[in-house]
Specification:
This protein is an alpha/beta fold. It is 44% helix and 21% strand. It has 17 helices and 19 strands. It is elongated, with a radius of gyration of 29 Å. Bound molecules: ligand C2E and magnesium ion (2 copies).
Length: 508
Amino acid sequence: MNEGLGRHRTLERQLRRLGLAPDTPPDLGGWARFLDRVSASYRASEDDRYTLERSIEISSDEMRALHDVLSRQARHDTLTGLPNRAALVELLRAALDESRLIGSDVAVLFIDLDGFKMVNDSLGHPVGDELLIRVAERIQATIRGRDVVARLGGDEFVVILRDVDGFATATATAERIVDQLGRPFRMGGNNTAISASIGIALANADALSVDDLLRRADMAMYEAKAGGRSQYTIFNDDVSDRLDGRLATINALRDVVEANQLVMHYQPIMRIADRTVTGVEALVRWQRPGHGLLAADSFIPIAEESHVITAIDAWAVKRACEEFTASKYRELTLSVNLSARDLQHSGIVDTVSNALQSTGLRPDQLVMELTETTLAADNATTAANLGRLRALGVRLAIDDFGTGYSSLSYLRQIPAQSLKIDRSFVSALDVDESSVAIVGAVVGMGHALGMQVIAEGVENAAQLERLAALECDQVQGYLVARPQPLRELTESWSAVPVAVRSTNWTSS
Ligand code: C2E
Ligand code: MG
Ligand code: MG
């Protein structure tokens, strides 16, 4: 034990005797907060001793030790021991000052882990903490002696590369980090896989502030994530433009419901066996001023990052039920998409229940589509709200199946009546033989669990034929009809070629 820490312990003992110490030391965070309070209340007295409000005496040595502890804690992340955000800002400021003097560049790597939340949620926080420590070690091992790695919090780290010349060192370092963090971590006897997305920003001739530099690296990181993760992106003007666009979208989305800018389109779902349309899926569209009619893909993922999504979905449920029951399709089924965030509040259950009541739609005609990750979430609130939705009598569908993390075996735990195979597998059906095997296995598993299997994104007759041969039940896609206002749906599906269930075609 070093001397400072020894004094710290002495001090802790003294404080504890006086009933002033926190109940739960060695929790360093709590201890630091406590010391903060203590140090704020001391008064220096003449004989170089400090008297606390509640009359404890502390020698100046002890006070210094206390100060050391405080300032160390103020500058370090207690989990990994790395410099924290406050220290990073100071270090970066110093690096920028230095670079101006010697005329070199400073690069910043903004690192965000991919899939960390999943590990933390599914394996528990102690495992998550252990993983962060190991990540910190791996990053440290890939950088040069004069470089610094700091932890910003959560699963975010920043590396400062001093005295570099252009992007070469930064990209080489980023490549090594992506490679190192992409290798499995052996945790408690299991291999745990995560990866890292990195944004790089460079301060050269332009006098950037610490904040600007970090913000640019953060923006570039965001692009790396959006571009598919486990990669790095360099900040440039394109990144900046795209992110400005994103911010504008976030702002414009705030009052999209009140401003009456949403409209609903519907896409039919067709049974393969007899080319009968059994229902429609409601897909929201945004009539955005100056941008035309936007498909859900271009704004729902952004809306999902904020509470806007719950307002959009409440609108979607109500509007879809109203339009559907007023249409000639009212005896079919209506599918509506929900987001993970919706299930975090019981409000969605009321929304659905009110919509059923006011429109007279039978609960078993309404299908709530949820992505598999939402359904797999090991979250008590989500589970409770799913249970309440089920209790209303509405049906559940697993959307985009195959894109989440889940294994086929976990399907049995989910109270869903149908399974929608993601478009990426369907579009690969006529080019990639392995997707034939995958789709076949998913259909078999779905049927074994008593689910209807629906293929999404079916665009041509060849795909339809293969799906029929694989015994998929229903299809949805441009081949049948594009999403459009309910009133404009024409019975174009009568022209869809009849797919024969059993063909000579095999998957071998
Ligand atoms: P999804 O539920 O899987 O919907 C299918 C998406 O594929 C739709 O995109 C649809 O327009 C598109 N699509 C359908 N057939 C084809 C095809 O043959 N080829 C191709 N390339 N695409 C096809 P959209 O409307 O942009 O919606 C994207 C996603 O946004 C939806 O995926 C759904 O997850 C989400 N979404 C849509 N409306 C809502 C909503 O009201 N609330 C929520 N929370 N999410 C919604
Ligand atoms: Mg859907
Ligand atoms: Mg889908």
